[in-house]
Design brief:
By secondary structure, the chain is mainly β. It has one helix and 17 strands.
Length: 338
């Protein structure tokens, strides 16, 4: 028999993932979405454009998140992604950007593993200097898996045991992003654009189904320059201090989140980062899910203008009404090169 807390956790997840109408956010969660925008919006490839003196054609990202530290079977999430952004001779012309992301999201016996390819077309807006529209499409393959060997229930005839070990299906996402130079950005994306149902039939229990539902994401933010500018390349670049306020709003039709507002239809994260001379950053944020987080990162540029970054984040649940299963930690790595 599972420990009581672990059993409750597993029950909640099985109910959310395997009920006829799964009314829950079904996509992975990561604090470092700000370092890897394509993870939440296929149109928003080339995040490095905003805080970089030179153009880097290739970017590699990797990250790992452990949620509810100390709880057996708690959620873990990891990803690896790459971006290819060819530089144009004329930046006033439309261009293409490409990305790929692989990830794993596992909680106790339940796992989701995916591989996505992303495409973004960016179009400079005529007569508005520095205004650009990005349109993106993502296509991928998802493996939904239940490890039956790790499910130990008091009732061995429970219908969840009739669930097949794994199912694979195709998934799509669309997105758009509008940016104004290195000052402001706003993006809208729809993961799981086409809703999907997949079912397992068992002679004793009948139909047992899971529904993949459409999500809607809005990410918005900007860069506020402070201090002296860096004229190393004869053109103004980032100032001594750069502030980046940002917000990630998530909406799932039919879901009411448990927040400080009863039956609130959105889940929201608000964050603030401060970059110092492009060498390191500190930041923090709070979400309606009750998670207070702090982060720190360092960035170094080599002589040939390649760059690497390392960031860490730590989250603490705050508020009596939230399910305080434990703290969470995350690490992110990035490497930029030609």
């Amino acid at each position: 028999m599972l420990p009581r807390l672990r059993a409750k956790l597993l029950f909640i997840l099985l109910f959310a993932l395997c009920a006829y109408s799964a009314l829950a956010q079904q996509t992975p969660y990561s604090i470092f979405y700000r370092s890897n925008w394509q993870f939440i919006n296929p149109a928003a490839i080339d995040r490095s454009h905003y805080l970089s003196r030179s153009h880097n054609e290739m970017v590699l990202n990797a990250g790992f998140r452990q949620q509810w530290i100390g709880l057996e079977g708690a959620p873990i999430f990891y990803y690896l992604s790459a971006e290819y952004c060819p530089e144009l001779s004329d930046r006033n012309m439309p261009g293409n950007k490409y990305g790929v992301t692989a990830f794993g999201d596992k909680t106790d016996a339940i796992g989701t593993y995916g591989l996505y390819g992303n495409y973004s077309r960016f179009i400079p807006i005529p007569y508005t200097s520095g205004h650009t529209l990005h349109i993106g499409l993502s296509a991928g393959v998802l493996l939904y898996q239940v490890d039956q060997d790790n499910i130990r229930l008091q009732n061995q005839l429970d219908p969840i045991l009739a669930q097949q070990g794994g199912q694979t299906y195709v998934d799509f996402a669309v997105g758009a992003m509008y940016r104004i130079r290195k000052e402001f950005y706003v993006g809208l994306s729809i993961p799981q654009t086409f809703t999907l149902d997949f079912q397992n039939r068992d002679a004793a229990s009948g139909v047992f189904a899971t529904e993949r539902v459409r999500h809607i994401y809005l990410n918005i933010g900007g860069f506020i320059q402070r201090g002296e500018y860096d004229y190393a390349n004869s053109l103004p670049d980032q100032g001594t201090l750069v502030l980046e306020p940002s917000c990630w709003i998530r909406y799932v039709p039919g879901v009411s989140y448990s927040t400080f507002i009863n039956n609130f239809p959105f889940s929201i994260d608000a964050n603030l980062r401060a970059y110092f001379r492009q060498k390191f950053w500190v930041g923090g944020g709070y979400g309606t899910t009750g998670l207070l987080n702090a982060e720190f990162g360092i960035s170094r540029t080599t002589e040939n203008e390649t760059k690497w970054q390392v960031g860490i984040s730590y989250g603490v649940p705050v508020g009596k009404k939230y399910l305080s299963l434990g703290h969470s930690a995350e690490i992110g790595l990035a490497y930029y090169f030609y």
